[in-house]
Amino acid sequence: MARYAIGDIQGCYHSLMHLLEQLDFQPGRDTLWLVGDLINRGTGSLAVLRWVFEHQSHVRVVLGNHDLHAIAVAHHIKPPHRFDTLSELLTATDGPALLQWLRQQPLMVLEEDFAMLHAGLYPQWTLAEARTLAAEVEAVLQSPGYLGFLQQMYGNQPAAWHDDLAGIDRLRAITNAFTRMRLLDAEGVMEFSFKGELPDTPAGYMPWFLAPDRQSANATQKILFGHWSALGLYQGHGVIGLDTGCLWGRQLTAYALETGHISQVPLDLRDRPADLAGD
Ligand SMILES: [Mn+2]
What we know:
It is a single chain. The chain is α/β, with parallel strands linked by helices. The protein has a single domain, classed as Metallo-dependent phosphatases (Purple Acid Phosphatase, chain A, domain 2, 4-Layer Sandwich), CATH 3.60.21.10. It contains eight helices and 13 strands. It has helices at 13-23, 45-54, 65-74, 87-91, 95-103, 127-141, 146-152, 167-179, and strands at residues 3-6, 31-34, 59-61, 108-110, 114-117, 183-185, 190-191, 205-207, 222-225, 234-236, 239-241, 251-256, 262-266. The strands form three sheets. Strands 3-2-1-12-13 form a five-stranded mixed beta sheet, covered by helices on one side. The chain binds manganese (II) ion.
């Protein structure tokens, strides 16, 4: 029995199949931990989501920004982005059921030895506090009122967390930290536009995992995350970054939780659309 965490798949179905073959992944014996952004931009969003749905009892998933975007587009809350590759999923007869299942997935997984989230963990939060805050958003996403939340989910404000945030501001700040954050400034203001490499971090900002006062820094759990393809494979400070830019022509990466062994496959070119740009 093994557990493997896999970085952002983004609809790269063939690359995922190659990686699972390389791992000799056996459903019923092994478990996958997927760091979110399962779908969009690659050509195989429908195939990826069908595969994950079919193997859901052997897969742990956290929601990424592209996953939430797909749900919002499906409900006509957000217009499709020019480089979205969601139309096959959105028109499939099983599309609504697949997206309903996706909407039930958490923002954070917390076990005794590992935690997993898509983008970042706000430095002021312990892992236990973060899990409680994730539950606030998950409860709304899983409630009949989820459309109202999706309609107000977008926006960069409030950019800093305060414990006394309430209502939609509170839910938006939690969602942005878990699914979009890469950098913050010394005052804890989140920055969402920078997507570059670590050495190019703008002056005055730092990656969330290098914040000097990070409450999760000394946790027992290692933190698995994705979302930052330009960071690449990152191991240090108790975190493991797994988005290695498969979609962008680099690799899809798996991290074996029991051994720390890294496995990688290159992009299968069938996964890459002819028209690819954006984030
Ligand atoms: Mn992402």
